[in-house]
Amino acid sequence: MEKSRRRKDRKTTSLDTGQHSSLPPLLPMELMMDIFSRLSLKSIAICRCVSKQWGYVLGHPDFRDLRLARSQARPCLLFACFRGNKLFFLSSPQPQSQSPDDEMFAADHHMSFSFTRPVKDISTSVSGFVCVSFRGYQSGRQFMADESVVCNPSTGQSFTIPRMKTMKRTGGIRFFGYDLVEKHHKVLAMIRPPGHGGRTVDHQVLTLLGGRTEKATWRMAECGIPCASSRDIQSLCINGVFYYIELVSDWGLDSMIICFDVTSEKFSSVKFARDLYPVRRNYPGRLLDFNGKLALVPSDSLRVTSKCIVTWVLQDSEWSKLVYILPPMWKVVVGPKECLEIVGVTGPNEFVMSPIYSSDPFHVYYCNFEKKTVKRVVIQGMGAFGSGRRYYVRTCLNHVEDLKHMEL
Which run of H or E residues covers position 278? Predict the structure, then answer.
């Protein structure tokens, strides 16, 4: 009799698992999602294993959307530390206050990946996902083509992007972006012929599907822009548009920025500002998201001896030159051995700088040119990667946590 009563109690306290049940859940679905969405990623992972009902709630698309919305309201800093074939992802809160005082945050270790090839480059965080690229090489008689892997630092998922449908064995180029209309990640790929005189060919697009049943396949994208293939290509996705530099070896007039609309899959181009030619004959700079607009910033590292930052911002197909004089306290706050790069902007007049290599301690700097302040943020937990160029560090602003499971 006592066993029967305990069995009955367990039935009345069980929650709906998403299947047909005559018993109502103890808490409404919306309330459970709201509670779970406030937990950390590690806590969510643990809660998935508590019961089938909790696993159902935490795997529901509405919960993923709610968690993503909360993360977008408070984005974080993402640090990708890589050396050889090893890659580590860490994150920390992104400073929200306007206080000029120094702050300290603890870095939360997300995931570690070990690949069969050395890491060549890492994209910025694109709606929670990061694309890792590896360089192709010749192994005896076998040619190992370029390869890219998409990683989700929040869930630990990673998968290799399928090879393009092409007969060419030359190096491939891949760009990673997000379609704001269809809510899909896309990959733009092309082939770079040998030498610098040819043009990129075989432009193709791949849509990465999240939880869909159809299979992802490459499709051709017509590119009628007469530009030469680059000796070095960098890219950036801003508001659903890819931007990448097509730069020839002699810095000729056919060097330009190529624009690719991720939704319509149409190409266009923008010429560099004429004033850039005599100043930067070897390289025009790095692409930067300047409050939703494309910008070029110096590719040179910033140091304590730096004087200013020259920025070119693209507005209505025209380039505007902005010169920011570093405030006097720059020399006081920035360490003498710091080697910094500009990783983003957080307002009309605030730049964010981060070290290129691992260091202990590890600092991120916020330079507000309107208030003439330099704020130093100490990131704890990065000391494990050591100092002295042991690891490259890619710092990404406004990283969000997307729990979506990507499928091909």
Answer: helix 276-279
Residue pLDDT, tens place only, 81-119: 999 999 999 999 998 777 778 899 988 888 888 888 889
Q: Are 241 and 259 in contact (CB under 8 A)?
A: yes
Do β-strands 373-380 and 103-106 pair in parallel, antiparallel, or remain unpaired? parallel
Is CATH 2.120.10.30 the right assignment for the domain spanning 74-399?
yes
The amino acid at residue 314 is L
Tokens of 112: 């570690």
What is the value of pTM for the model shown? 0.84
CA 398/CA 127 separation, integer angstroms: 9
Q: Where along the chain do the CATH 2.120.10.30 domains lie?
A: 74-399
Cβ(312)–Cβ(292) under 8 Å? no
Across 123-150, b (16+ Cβ under 10 Å) vs e yields bbbbbbbbbbbbebeeeeeeeebbbbbb
Tokens representing residue 163 in the block: 């090879």
**Within 10 A of 38 (CB to CB), how many other CB atoms are there?**
11
- Per-residue pLDDT of 233-286, as tens digits, reads 678 899 999 888 776 554 455 567 889 999 999 998 888 776 664 444 455 678
How many Å apart are CA 387 and CA 355, to the nearest integer? 11
pLDDT reported for residue 23: 40
Are 186 and 262 within 8 A, CB to CB? Answer: yes
pLDDT at residue number 350? 92
Half-sphere exposure (CA, 13 Å, Cβ side) for 151?
Answer: 26
Provide the 8-state DSSP code for 247.
-
